[in-house]
Amino acid sequence: MNVDINSQFIVSSIAAVAAVVAAGVSIYNARFGRFSRQRWWERKVDAYSQIIDALSSLVYYYEEHMNAELECRKAGGQHSKGFEQFWHDGNIKIKTATAIGAFLISKEAETALQIMWKEKGKGITYGDWYGAMESDYNATNACLKTMVIVAKKDLGT
User: Fold this and answer.
1) Is 76 helix (H, G, I), strand (E, B) or coil?
2) Alpha-carbon distance values, 39 to 2, 43, 130 (Å)
3) Residue 148 neighbours by CB under 8 Å, 6+ apart
4) Which residues fall within 8 angstroms of residue 127, CB to CB, at 6 or more apart?
5) How many alpha carbons fall within 13 Å on the CB side of residue 154?
6) 54 near 93, Cβ under 8 Å?
7) Where are the domains of the chain?
8) The pTM is what?
9) Which among 51, 107, 136, 141 is least surrounded, fewest beta carbons within 10 Å?
């Protein structure tokens, strides 16, 4: 009879330990999943922030060039060398974002970037510098507006 009581005690002890371990693993998995989702959301925020920042830089660049042309002055003024960096940096970031595509950003955001590249320079005759700037400005500005809306929707803000 003593053996049966000892066996039952051991079996119930093992079952209790197994239940505690299972609960611990379950809690760990839930916390890890939440942490993983949080990190993914932060990466998406960073991606959208970089894209919106780059688009804003390009819009500023095009606006400054068009205004300078209308006012018969040099774009960027005395800081023209650093000013050209806006265009360079913005284009590289946007090309990278377009290449990465829907890995971090939504399909809608990826489509907005692709449309921007198709619309830039559309319908411009050779040598029409101002028309090219205006076309690039319009395409980039439209993409910026769309990207802000899409980012808010995708990030749930």
Assistant:
1) coil
2) 55, 6, 44
3) 52
4) none
5) 25
6) yes
7) 39-155
8) 0.71
9) 107
